[in-house]
Amino acid sequence: MTPGSNDAAPMLFQPLKLAQLTLPNRVVVSPMCMYSARGGVANDFHLVHLGQYALAGVGLIFTEATSVSPEGRISPEDLGLWDDEHIVPLGRVTDFVHAHGGLIGTQLAHAGRKASTYAPWRGRGAVPEERGGWPVIGPSDQPYSDALPTPRAMTADDIARVTADFAQAARRAEMAGFDTVEIHAAHGYLLHQFLSPLSNTRADAYGGTFENRVRLLLEVTRAVRNAWPMHKPLFVRLSATDWVEGGWDESQTVVLCGLLAREGVTAVDLSSGGLSAQQQIPVQPGYQVPFARQVRAAVPDLNVMTVGMIDTPERAEAYLQNGDADLIALGRPLLGDPHWIQAAAQRLGVTPPVAAQYARGARTT
Fold first, then answer.
1. 133 burial via Cβ count (<10 Å: 0-12, 13-18, 19+)
2. What's the pLDDT at 8?
């Protein structure tokens, strides 16, 4: 049986149409920071790392968080789309993916107060300016922790500039040949910082009430949607909860998702946490799936992607069969086995998606 050939196939291997883009299956490479760029420019590492997933037959590949401005990088080694020089190197990656039948998106991001930090294997905490670090910005002047930089509270001009940076990055993503973009509003980065009352203590139109705290994300979404072709899908990644009392939570996420649907968002990618060092996360397999289930039930116009400790094909298939989510994003499982999808196909009883060049080595047991 060919994956997605009929409704009898496991849902993990059925196609899904997002706007005018049809994914061949429901497995998605989750955005994962690789800390391997210089000056934001993609290189051979990114070509090989992302290209392998096209050869493996994954339904949709996302790049790592790709910064819309230099000061928005998590680390000095992050990818970027803040300059036209970034277009051609990323286009080399998208060309390879497309040549081998794959689809690829990029995650547009700004780290806010969590910017200018070391890559995990290079150190901990803030990178000093003499080692390539930079001053950081945020909704307010509170740092994430004592080990990270103290941000400067953003002015109205800063907010307008960042919004424009997201839109311009989306235009560059289109020129680079991406099939979709995702706005990163999760994991304690800038747009999430504005959402949460724990990090947003502003007293202007961007702080205080729920309506004010979601304002920047809605403005960024509107700007990106206007810059991004309507026939191509738009994702938004959210942390459904801060896992801290008094912070951003599931009920606010559900309301926000309804607003995002009205702005033309095609799919939401629901993760959690990352905003506060005080978070208490009850980590276990599928611990974030209930967030997807809630949003999918409340906002039927949105496609919903779930992620987090979904380590087996059977578990992924069950979430789809139960109506908990439309897409399954995988991070660590695909780092551990880039050909995870082929083993999954075999275990679920379908013919694995295999590039012609690799057919001789297709899994048979």
1. middle
2. 76
- Taking the model in full, what pTM does it have? 0.96
49: CB partners within 8 A, 6+ apart:
34, 36
For 10, residues 6+ apart whose C-beta sits below 8 A from its C-beta are 317, 348, 349, 350
User: Angle between the 215-227 and 250-262 helix axes, to the nearest 10 degrees?
Assistant: 30
Q: Convert the pLDDT of each residue in 8-29 to its tens digit.
A: 789 999 999 999 999 999 999 9
Label the pairing between strands 137-138 and 27-29.
unpaired
Supply the angle between the helices 156-175 and 215-227 in degrees, to the nearest 10. 30
Q: How far is CA 139 from CA 36, 96, 144, in A?
A: 28, 39, 12
Task: Decide if 354 contacts 6 (C-beta within 8 A).
Answer: no
pLDDT(4) > 80: no
Residues 275 and 241: their CA atoms lie apart, in Å, by 9
Active site residue 53: no
Concatenate the DSSP letters of all residues of 1-20 into one string: --TTSSTTS-GGGS-EEETT
Q: How far apart are CA 316 and CA 294, in angstroms?
A: 17
Residue 244: CB atoms within 10 A of its CB come to 18
- Count the neighbouring beta carbons within 10 Å of the beta carbon of residue 122: 13
- DSSP assignment, residue 154? P
194 Cα distance to chain centroid: 17
Q: Phi/psi of residue 263, each to 5°? A: -85, 5
Domain positions in the chain are: 25-361
The alpha-carbon radius of gyration of the chain (Å, integer) is 20
The Cα-based distances of 254 to 151, 250, 329 in angstroms read 29, 6, 20
Q: What is the CATH code for 25-361?
A: 3.20.20.70
Selected catalytic residue, list 189, 206, 319, 358: 189
Spatial CA neighbour of 215 closest among 194, 236, 188: 194
